[in-house]
Structures are given as structure tokens and as C-alpha cells.
């Protein structure tokens, strides 16, 4: 499986506490911060919960 490049594109201010914790657990700190994550079920589930706040790209 390929890795995923995840970028935070919207602020987590004024979001639900659960969504803030998910963004923090993904390793995203601030707007335009990017991390590379493994593509597995747990990560994809977390990304689905905050899909409106992030941009995801597949890295080969």
C-alpha cells in the first residue's frame, strides 16, 4: 500500500473536541502543516472523521 500525505487546510478552532483530538493524533499542528502517514484502516477511519478539514494525497 502507498503512504498518504495529509495536509490540514482548515483550522480546528470552533470544532468539536473529538475532531480536535483526532487532528492532534494524526500529528497535524497548524494550518498548512503536512504529515505522511501509513495507509491502513485506523488512519483512514480517522481521516474520514475530519475529511472536511484536510486534504489527502497518495504517495507511491
From TrEMBL:
Domain Large ribosomal subunit protein uL30-like ferredoxin-like fold: 4-54
One GO MF term attached to the UniProt entry: structural constituent of ribosome
Keyword terms: Ribonucleoprotein, Ribosomal protein
UniProt GO cellular component terms: cytosolic large ribosomal subunit
Subunit annotation: Part of the 50S ribosomal subunit.
The keyword Ribosomal protein is assigned to this record: yes
Protein name: Large ribosomal subunit protein uL30
Family of this protein: Belongs to the universal ribosomal protein uL30 family.
Native source organism of the sequence: Secundilactobacillus malefermentans
GO biological process: translation
Pfam assignment, any one: Ribosomal_L30
Entry keyword Hydrolase: no
